[in-house]
Amino acid sequence: MRQPGSALAVEDMSGSRRAGRRAWTAALDGVATTTLWTLRNRAEFALGPDPLIQDPWAVHAYRTVRYDYTVFGRKPSQSHPLRALAVDRELRGYLRERPDATVVALGEGLQTTFWRLGLPVRRWVSVDLPAVVALREQLYPAEDAIVPVAGSALDRSWMDEVHDPGDGVFVTAEGLFMYLDRQDVLGLVADCARRFPGGRLLFDSIPHWFSRRTLAGMRLSESYTAPPMPTAFTVRENAAVFGALPGVAAVRDVALPLGRGPWGSALLHRLSDLPPLRDVRPSLTLLDFAG
Ligand SMILES: C[S@@+](CC[C@H](N)C(=O)[O-])C[C@H]1O[C@@H](n2cnc3c(N)ncnc32)[C@H](O)[C@@H]1O
Question: What are the C-alpha distances in Å from 133 to residues 34, 109, 191, 224, 270?
Answer without folding.
Answer: 14, 7, 24, 23, 38
